[in-house]
Design a protein that fits this description.
The complex is a heterodimer of chains A (162) and B (121). With 162 residues, chain A is α+β, with helices and mostly antiparallel strands. Helices cover 46% and strands 27% of the residues of chain A. In chain A, helix 1 runs antiparallel to helix 2. The longest helix of chain A has 31 residues. The chains are: A alpha+beta (162), B mainly alpha (121). At the A-B interface, helix 1, helix 2 and strand 2 of A face helix 2 and helix 3 of B.
């Protein structure tokens, strides 16, 4: 799709990550699940002398929970860290990839889309300076953009030149 | 009569089953300092279950590393097509080693926990 695009006069203007707020929910869930699995390990240890079958069962459950949480958490971290918003002089690309599950590339061509709005709704988005870019009112939306006003200004300048 | 009393039946000396277990676990206790609970017959399926889970975990780790490297190369290729190969910084250069170390430590720690059972020694 983009291979050899530089030969046609396309160049990257800016690359930005998505806002870090996307990590808050996975980290909270992971801490909660890790705490539960550690408690289960402790319970397995405490019941080892009194009820061996219970201790073994709890140990297996704790191990499954620990390993699942561990892999899920790092898969989310690795996947999210790969997400990028690439702005070239011709288009905007948002690349989203989830290990094993899916890959999604959103492409907004500046030849077709002529307007862009930056939206920051709510206290959290205004405090943490992130929001959504909306092209042609709502034809295409790019959420979790850090400093959306600044990015929208860059895109508007590119659109004017194009 | 305690569990380890030898009983004579039909002219043969029979040792009760629990006595055999007691002898085995006592031997383990005195020789390697482990608790008798570790050598209970119920331990074998648990050990097998734990090792299967850990093997699956290590396989998933290997699969994720492979997928991540593939995707990373794909991104590098995508950006180099737009003349921006120098702006791509591998974001997993910190996360990936941490992931590998944490999974290995978890595997070793849980294996040690189920084999040596330090909490009951």
């Amino acid at each position: 799709m983009t291979h050899g695009a530089s030969e046609h006069g396309e160049h990257i203007v800016t690359i930005t990550n998505e806002h870090w707020v996307k990590y808050v929910v996975p980290v909270t869930v992971a801490v909660f699940l890790f705490a539960i699995s550690l408690l289960l390990f402790a319970l397995a240890g405490m019941t080892a002398h009194h009820a061996m079958w219970l201790s073994h069962t709890v140990f297996i459950v704790a191990l499954v929970l620990l390993l699942m949480t561990l892999h899920w958490f790092f898969m989310v971290l690795l996947s999210e860290s790969l997400d990028r918003i690439v702005i070239t002089n011709r288009r905007l690309l948002r690349v989203q990839y989830r290990l094993i599950f899916h890959e999604d590339i959103l492409e907004v061509s500046f030849d077709k889309m002529k307007t862009v709005d930056a939206r920051k709704h709510g206290l959290l988005q205004n405090l943490l300076h992130y929001g959504t870019l909306a092209f042609e009112v709502n034809k295409a939306r790019v959420p979790l953009v850090p400093h959306p006003n600044r990015v929208a200004r860059v895109i508007q300048e590119i659109m004017q030149v194009a | 009569m305690n569990d380890c009393t030898h009983r004579k039946r039909g002219g043969k000396l029979r040792i009760r089953r629990r006595c055999k277990e007691h002898a085995l676990t006592s031997l383990a206790q005195y020789t390697v300092g482990m608790d008798p609970v570790i050598f209970s017959p119920e331990m074998l399926p648990v050990l097998v279950g734990v090792f299967i889970l850990e093997a699956l975990s290590l396989l998933l780790l290997a699969l994720n590393i492979f997928l991540y490297h593939n995707q990373n190369e794909k991104y590098r290729h995508l950006l180099s097509g737009m003349g921006g190969q120098h702006v791509w910084k591998n974001p997993g250069r910190v996360i990936l080693p941490v992931y590998i170390v944490v999974v290995l430590v978890a595997t070793i720690a849980t294996s040690a926990l189920i084999i040596f059972q330090p909490h009951i020694l």
